[in-house]
Amino acid sequence: MPDDRATRPSHDGLSNQSGLSRRRLLAGAAAGLGAAGVGAAGGYALGAASVALPIEPTTTPNPVAFGDVAGIGSAVVSFFGDHQAGIELEPQAHSSFLAFTLTPAADRAGIRRMLRLITDDAARLTAGRPALADTEPELAVAPARLTVTVGFGPALVDRVDSSARPAWLAPLESFAIDRLEERWSGGDLLLEVASDDALAIAHASRMLVKDIRRYATLRWRQDGFRQAAGALTPGATQRNLFGQLDGTANSFLNSDEFARVVWGTRTGPEWLVGGTSYVLRRIAMNLNTWDELARDGREQAIGRRLDSGAPLTGTLEQDAPDFGALTALGLPVISPIAHIARARVADPTQRIFRRGYNYEFTSSTTVDAGLIFGAFQADPVAQFLPIQRRLAEVDLMNIWTTPIGSAVFAIPPGCAEGGFVGETLF
Amino acid sequence: MTAAESVQLVDPWVKAVDDGMTAAFGTLENTGDADVTLVSAQSSASSMVELHETVMTDGQMQMQQKDGGFVITAGRMREFAPGADHIMLMGVTQPLLPGDQVMITLTFSDGSSIEKAFEVKEFTGADEEYMGDLSDSGNE
Prior knowledge:
The complex is a heterodimer. By secondary structure, chain A is α+β, with helices and mostly antiparallel strands. Chain A has helices spanning 17-36, 108-126, 154-161, 198-211, 256-263, 287-291, 295-302, 339-343, 380-393; strands spanning 55-56, 94-102, 147-152, 189-195, 216-225, 238-239, 245-246, 276-285, 353-354, 357-362, 367-377, 401-411.
């Protein structure tokens, strides 16, 4: 598998981004910490350009060490590029999905102002620099591959230019298996804030929510986790809370197939060229009833071995399943209603790219666990819906899983320095 | 070399306000060989702009106009920040909305000036008290 951890997709032309960004980050961090030494008067973003000069009135900066033993905290993913960051990227350990409802102040001009604010905050914070007017600048120095990915719900696009809204930018059709809750569904604006460090996410999220509060109020927030940075071989499939390898069928980052699946061919609206769509579903997973199932039954339900993730007809995770293979008794090795049999895509145009996160909030009385299912695809109607319809119809995994949230967002393309995310819509 | 040529303004921003008073912030860097003095500021967004400093009076931090302006020593930078030195905008008539930009002109003692766009941001920090009888500090 390609080693693409902490690197940018090759198409942004920034192959040496890592080293350059690290220097910029450390310079910015040094400036920020120097400013903190001013005391009550200080604590503001000084920016990368201001590293060389001492501050006056003359002060003695607090010597604050910024160690990054594992090389994780200082890792930077550039905010700018043809595509938004945080999509074609080895998933970070943590991600927070923040959906907002627009206020009346968010008319066309207000949305433009809001997107400029988001862009400015995200560009600084993802580079390891404090946001403008950042009251906790020290929390910005270790971004740990922080990314902020911006998505538009139907109402946002309608307020800017209703003729620009693709037909698929609407709530998904309802499925019999759905038990959707309003508190996890819909949204006019999405900010996905992801990082290998949950503290960086907390800081960036707080900054963004504060800065856009005139235009948008938080509707829901979903926090998810994967394994820690460095815990797995880069590119390895993560496990969900059922212990299953989850996302085996994904195409490789920076592959032609990824580009075709996620960025698509130029058939959609012009403003979405370089963008994609994002389907977010909150899938509750019943850990208690899953406990009652023996290991063999668990493997039958998914159609894969739990240890290797290989299909029941193979030996390696990436082996193609043989749905025609029969047991000595003449029964299919992989049940026709196993998850992989139902999710299987024969049509190469019906592929999606999944970027999921686990969640778990267990209390003394309840076990609330599951998956924040995120799927990128150029066209959710053409690519996502056929799969979802088959799974909703029959899938053994439906016994233990329940969709409780659903939202669809348009992901505009990335922007260059000086521009703002979503500018192509205006 | 004029003062305007040797000075850079980094990270300029201004606190959002519907009307009345607000303040602008940023960092002035003097990369030149001579000290420069910021003596005044102007903006079309506000009828009066003053340079303010923070002083301790009777145990309280208070704002007052800075006599003679602010010196930025050669090779140094001076920060303008909430709770500290700042550029005071009084008589704001049009709302300064978050995400907008406000143009402010900074004039130095040699008569040279720079005009810069300040980003408007929501901000509630550093509650300020003003010298004199200005009851409305512009804070929410």
